[in-house]
Design a protein that fits this description.
By secondary structure, the chain is an alpha+beta fold. Helix content is 53%, strand content 17%. It has 2 domains: 100 residues, Sandwich (Immunoglobulin-like); 128 residues. The protein is built from 7 helices and 8 strands. The N terminus and C terminus are likely disordered.
Length: 300
């Protein structure tokens, strides 16, 4: 009889140890469907027991359990469950057999952006502009405004001023060309003989008279040039000086009269002085005329 009672007691399996869940933490704390989540569970057993990580991870229909880890801290145990849920709602972890205990009451709520958040479609967003686009648009708009305004201003006031400038430039051109020719001739006054010098000098004077008076003076005689000089030179002394230069040049060219270098330099200096006075006399009436036109435009 005692033998039978001993066998019955030995055939009864040992009772599993109890446990108490201390804390459950989800990392990250904010997650949605499809995110990988780590559930950290701390539990305490009612008695000293050796636990082992499950040898086989159970499969679930709502997602996938990737890993289950176990660490001991005396009577407390840390369980790490890494999982991914592909369905929203409250999900239940299947029972996990750790050898001494079976943990079967772990759940988590998996939120969904479409269900828990905004359900309506977002409104169309404005087009993203590359950096600097607004600056270029402002510059182009400014150019489109400034260029036509500048053109209108030019048509209103600038065209007349431009025409007057071109006229003054064209009128001053013979003076500048004459002065430049005399300056070049003075640089080589010692390298050429007297005849060639006066041929070149009188040719420059004839060309200057032709362009200034708009009359062909290249073939005019010395007597005819006197009449042309009356139209150009208001000072009798300047007219006589130029005529004397032509007479002296004729003597050098046709009578082989002497032409010392000092005399040549003096002739060039005299012509430069006359040309400078002519230019000043010509600019003064032009300035007065332009001043009167400006006063008329502003109503003075």
């Amino acid at each position: 009889m005692w033998t039978v009672l001993f066998l019955l007691i030995a055939s009864v399996p040992p009772l599993a140890a109890g446990y108490q869940i201390i804390s459950v933490t989800l990392l990250p704390q904010e997650f949605y469907v499809g995110d990988r989540v780590e559930m950290r569970v701390t539990l305490r057993t009612t008695s000293a027991v050796d636990l082992l990580a499950p040898g086989r991870i159970p499969a679930v229909e709502w997602g996938e359990i990737h890993q289950v880890r176990l660490a001991s801290r005396g009577l407390d145990w840390d369980i790490r469950i890494v999982l991914t849920s592909f369905q929203p709602g409250t999900r239940t972890i299947p029972p996990l057999d750790f050898g001494g205990i079976v943990v079967s009451d772990l759940t988590l709520h998996v939120p969904s952006i479409l269900i828990d958040g905004r359900r309506d479609l977002a409104s169309p967003q404005p087009q993203i502009l590359p950096p600097g686009t607004r600056l270029w648009i402002s510059v182009i708009a400014m150019v489109l405004v400034v260029v036509p305004l500048s053109f209108l201003v030019f048509l209103r006031w600038g065209r007349r001023s431009l025409a007057e400038f071109l006229v003054r430039r064209r009128e001053r051109k013979p003076y500048r060309r004459f002065v430049r020719a005399l300056s070049l001739l003075s640089q080589g006054v010692e390298q050429i003989d007297g005849r060639e010098f006066y041929i070149a000098l009188l040719e420059h004077v004839r060309r200057f008279l032709s362009s200034t008076l708009e009359t062909d003076c290249m073939a005019s005689t010395t007597t005819e040039l006197g009449g042309h000089l009356n139209r150009l030179l208001s000072d009798d002394g300047d007219r006589q000086t130029v005529l004397s230069l032509f007479h002296r040049g004729d003597l050098v060219k046709f009578a082989a009269a002497p032409a010392p270098v000092d005399q040549r330099r003096d002739d060039i200096s005299v012509l430069l002085s006359i040309a400078e006075r002519l230019g000043a006399e010509h600019r003064s009436p032009q300035r007065n005329l332009h001043a009167r036109r400006r006063k008329q435009r502003v109503g003075v």
